[in-house]
Structure formats: structure tokens, C-alpha cells
Amino acid sequence: MSKVASIMKTAGAVGLAFAALSGAAAAEDREFTWSVNAAGTSDYIFRGISQSDEKPAASAGLDVGYGILYGGIWASTVDSDFVGGSPAEVDFYAGIKPVLGPATFDFGVLYYWYPGDEVAGGNEQDYVELKAGVSGTLIPNLSTGFNMYWSDDGALESGEYFVYEGNAAYTLPAIGIFTPTIGGVLGYQDHQDDNTLDYTYWNAGLTLAVEKFAFDFRYWDTDIDNSGIADERFVFTAKVTLP
Questions:
Q1: 3-state secondary structure of 220
Q2: d(CA 86, CA 229)
């Protein structure tokens, strides 16, 4: 874990440097914020791969923030056979989001926990990732972003990897009570110890937002061959966020 601690220390130092450059936040920007969310989906997809064996899944989460600081917890049902007997995935995350001009940076750490997993061979399913990202709106209604993730030992102790992921979303004029947004994600996993685990994934879709609800219709696919849980598919998700 010394390598993880070193990377976390570096990421934190960079994040604090950006925070200093962006100046002290106004008092009103340092208020405590929170939200809760719940969702149902026809298939829980993570980086192009089904975590629920192509079956429906339910999830819920809690997010908190104070100025540039944020943290949260999110959990979803998963296919127990896929994750060594665990019925759920629970994610913990925290970080900072300093702002510099039109860009919002994101330096964080994520912990993926699979309670009750019993994996043959003793390899742990749980793992830690570090995240560095930037996002912004350069033209009206179009938001773009890029994130990089790193882990020194991923799920099942599979070894070191990087994930590079870009995203874009464009908000269209309202249609009746709905605010539609079109967008997608393109990502690539670069495994450092086993290049057979390298792959590209992408999605594109439409989200219809109305008040606190969002209805998402999305196409997913990867370049992984002969894998039913990574083939192309359409996924529907309904989500509510409060307050």
C-alpha cells in the first residue's frame, strides 16, 4: 500500500495547488451540501461489462460536499456468481474538486467493496482506485470531461492498470416537461501486467430529466470478443435524486 499512499499524497498535493490557484472560496461556496439517490436499471454496466449477469439491478447512494471537498457511498445489487458470492457492490469515495477558470478538476480515491465474497484461491475482490480528472463547459450546453483511473492491484488481484475515459454531453431545448441530454463515453483499460485484459468500451444515449427524475436510454458495447457480459446491449435506467 506504500505505492498507493505515495500516489494519493502526490494527487492531494496537486489538488491543493489548484485550490490555491483558484483562490479562497467565498463563504457561500463553503456550505454543507448533501443528496440521496435511488435507481433501477435493466442491466448494471461498469466500463462496458455487465455486473448483474445481464439482469436488472437496484442501487442507492448518498453524496455530501463542503466547498471543494466531497465524499459519498453508493451500492448496487450484483450477480453473486460474478463476484465470488457477494450479493452487492458497495463503493466509498472522497476527494477534492478545485476550480481554475472554466475547468473543474477532480482528485479522488475510490474503494470497491464486495461484502461476503469468497473467491477461490484467496484472491480478494475488493480494490482501491485513484482518480484524476477535469471537466468544463467550453460552449453553451456542451459539457466535456476526461478522467484517468489507476490501481496497483485491481479486482481479484489482477495487477496494475490504468483507465482513460472521455465523456461529452449536450443539453437540448426542453420538450414539454422533459429536458433531454444526448451524450456518451469512450474509455480504454490499459493493463500493465496482462495485455489480454486491455479493452475499449463506449456508450451513447439519451437522458430525459424532469424535476428530480431522470430516465436514461443507453447503448453499450466493447471490443471484447466472445463474452456475453460485454457484448452490445441497450440499457434503460430510471433514477431519482433528492432533495
A1: strand
A2: 18
